[in-house]
Amino acid sequence: MSSILIVPVPPFDMRKVNALVSPVQSTFGLPVHVNSADTVDPSFAFDLYRNQYNSTSIISAFIRQFEKHEGKVLGITSVDFFVPVLTYVFGEAQLDGPIAVVSSYRLDDTIYGLPDNPKLLEERLIKEVVHELGHTFGLIHCHDYRCVMHSSTAVEEIDVKSARFCPACEDRLRMKIEN
Ligand SMILES: [Zn+2]
Ligand SMILES: [Zn+2]
Predict the structure, then answer these.
(1) Could you tell me how many helices (H) and strands (E) the chain has, helices first?
(2) Cβ proximity of 13 and 78 under 8 Å
């Protein structure tokens, strides 16, 4: 049976990490563990000119580090992620592969000059984590705007969608998990 390992990447907030365990477990119906000992130091992925971290480089480091690991691995951090063609990303995943990474940085209202909203941040983080893990189970972007697999490029779009899979995505996920 598959499982999901959550690996906090510094800097991270352990309360935010722990709050993910139960929703991720119930959404995927798989065992979820947290391992902060085998973490990846993201400093090598820092881009001086952009003042951000290359999420694809962090994924590569995870691939090497968890080469022998069975199941999915999710890196979670609060550094600001980018990929070369985009201003920022909330996360990145290997489609139908073992690794996904998610950052809380752009999900936090305070970076947009708004009041701190920990509850909203937690909801957004759960949605992004489920979305990126969905990609690792082979799910692609969904046209249903309420489905968690709907693509979001701004927090407003994350707020519109739910933390759940639409029936079609749920079916694909179950087939993948059961095979
Ligand atoms: Zn996506
Ligand atoms: Zn869907």
Answers:
(1) 5, 9
(2) yes
Please tell me the number of the ligand nearest to residue 161's CA: 2
Q: How far is the CA of 165 from the centre of ligand 2 (A)?
A: 5
Q: Considering every ligand atom, which ligand is closest to the CA of 162?
A: 2
Digits of tens for pLDDT over the chain (179 positions)? 689 999 999 999 999 999 999 999 999 999 999 998 889 999 999 999 999 999 999 999 999 999 999 999 999 999 999 999 889 999 999 999 999 999 999 999 999 999 999 999 999 999 999 999 999 999 999 999 999 999 999 999 999 999 999 999 999 999 999 97
Residue type, 116: D
- pTM here is 0.96
Catalytic residue flag (residue 92): no
Count of alpha carbons within 13 angstroms of residue 160, beta-carbon side: 12
Domains of the chain: 4-140 (3.40.390.10)
DSSP calls for 71-110: SEEEEEE-SPEEETTEEEESEEE-TTSSEEEEESGGG-GG
